[in-house]
Amino acid sequence: MNCVKNKAAIICLLFVACLIFNACKLVNGTDKSDAVNSNIMNEKPDEKWFSDQRNSMVDLIASYPSSHSVTDENILYAMKQVPRHKFVAENMQSNAYDDTPLPIGYGQTISQPFIVAYMTQMLDLKKTDRVLEIGTGSGYQAAVLSQVVPKGHIYTIEIIEELADAAKKLLSDLGYKNITVRHGDGYKGWKEFSPFDAVIVTCAPNDIPRALVDQLKIGGRMAIPVGGKIKGIWGAQELFLLKKTEKGMEQKKHFDVRFVPMVEEK
């Protein structure tokens, strides 16, 4: 009988010890899996956790091989300043600093962080440059550009009105002063504020829109993915850097990509 009682006491002590151990893990755990688990329990990761994840994401991008390298320190610094988790839905925030695109609704995505950094680097921006962006999405690319050209201005166009309105409000709430958002057709560009030092297109047209070429300064650069559906069939998309000269457009292919298609207003 005493043996049974002793066994019961030991089991109770082990159970209490397990409870204490798990409680300590919940309090002290700081890795990503703990943050995801806390999300399930309706507890959001804190800003320090997001900051640590953001720094790790940028370190990963900086470590990629030379054929796909991002070496511009201003761009890497900008990527560490912009809170990507603010530009995705709350239920996606724990994955905001994975180097992958994420859905933002309406069939659109927020671009992979590496692509955001790489395309920004392609433009070879100066701090005073005026940049036209086609495809605002949730506003993340515009926010990164804003950090890189603090004395310049970003003009960004989004064809989906709900996304344009949401991005405009979010960018304003986050304190970005040098970004102007407009709902409209990116194929037409933004003639009112042209010519631009640089143009970045974050959706893929089948061909390079003539208006965007016309609105680019001589010496200006354009980063653009080209390709998409041909007769309803998906084709390859290629990322190009274009440079406008007195003699015309110079172009250089960088690598194959996959973007959402560029939509023209009907």
Which features would summarize this protein structure in a list?
266 residues; alpha/beta; Rossmann fold; 2 domains; seven-stranded mixed beta sheet; 8 helices; 37% helix; disordered N terminus
CATH architecture of the largest domain: 3-Layer(aba) Sandwich
Cα end-to-end separation: 86 Å
Instruction: Bin the helical content.
Output: 25-40%
Q: What would you report as the Rg, rounded to the nearest angstrom?
A: 24 Å
Q: What's the CATH topology name of the largest domain?
A: Rossmann fold
Note the main sheet: 7 strands, mixed
Order of helices and strands: HHHHEEHEHEHEEHEEEEE
When the domains are counted, the total is 2
Uncertain regions: pLDDT < 50 for 5+ in a row?
1-31, 33-41
Molecular shape: globular
* Count of DSSP H/I helices: 8
Total DSSP E strands = 11
Please state the structural category. Answer: alpha/beta
Give the overall pLDDT as a whole number: 86
CATH superfamily grouping of the largest domain: Vaccinia Virus protein VP39
- Biggest sheet strand order reads 5-4-3-6-7-10-11
| Beta-strand fraction estimate | 15-25%
